[in-house]
Amino acid sequence: MELTEQQHDALTEVLNIATARTAAALSDLTGQRVVLDVPQISIHPLGDLPQVLSRFIEGDIATVHQIFNGSVAGDALLLLGHDAAVQLVDMMTEDHARSQRLNESAREVLTEVGNILLNACLGVFGDLLQVHVSFSVPRLHLNDLNRMMRSVVIGREELQYGMVVHTTFRLHASAVSGYLVVILSVSSLDRLIDAIEQFG
Q1: Bridge partners, 40 (sequence order)
Q2: How crowded is residue 48: how many other Cβ atoms within 10 Å of its Cβ?
Q3: Of 31, 99, 158, 175, which one is least surrounded by beta carbons within 10 A?
Q4: pLDDT tens-digit profile of 113-136?
């Protein structure tokens, strides 16, 4: 799905507000200044998502998955490659031992980071649409891209489009790329675009 230039700029501005909220929350959490780059956005049919995402991320990935409901409903996911997930935990905890493993403590940190980012993003969408959005408890999954996609698609045929948002977490001299994917039904995406056009 192609957005007009005006829609793309307005959506970027909305998500920029969400990333700013996330950065502020992570800065409070870590006691250090965390910066998230201005996000890059694209929208794709659900069937194209595996191919699109495989250009950026491969092998085992860490996914924080949250289902949201309300008049706008769908799935929201934070995707990180395994090495990026380990590095992000190191950045947030200042643990430079680089265990290369995502132990229970590291998984809790990732889940909390994903929870903050996904809630900030969906909260901004809810504010924009003036609707209440309720969230499921975030779940962390460690598997490959194809298995992750199957967990979204099975039994959810009404979901049609995925919005891919690329951002970079920065702390001191370190940087980690992450991908936010919001999967929406056609009706939810139409409502979001209508609201964004009003916002812009």
Answers
A1: 166
A2: 11
A3: 31
A4: 999 989 888 888 888 778 888 888
